[in-house]
Write a structure and sequence with these properties.
7 helices; two-stranded antiparallel ribbon; 2 strands; mainly alpha; single chain; Arc Repressor Mutant, subunit A
Length: about 150
Amino acid sequence: MRINNYTEYAFRILMFLIVKKPDNATVQEVSEAFDLSYNHLNKVNQKLVKIGAVKSTRGKGGGIQITEEGENLTLDQIVKLLENYEEVASCVGTNHAADCKLASNCFLRAIFKLALEDFYKRLRQYRIKDLVKTDQMSLYQELLKIQKEV
């Protein structure tokens, strides 16, 4: 299974905000740090604000910060909140079962379902705050250094 770019960008935003904590960041900063489209990141950030993972403050000195709830989200929660599907293959979903001539004798659907459950079980073991080094400032400094080199 592969997560989509939208979900990957969410992970990047959340990790960046943990590294930047307790300071505010901006979507523009994240965009520049990862060389990603500001518009795409802004859409992802809006979703993260909507689900309570990120707090956004307007005006001078404003910006975005990860919330305590955001830090404690498990990776499977993020994927489930942001991905639009739970099908590993097109024949696995309930909408497609009737289309398959082998559906009544097929174990592929059950195997894929188990694999997906294992995937989420593994992701459930980690929280967003587990994804970055404990020495957050040095990682943030590295991101800034990389950004300046590019």
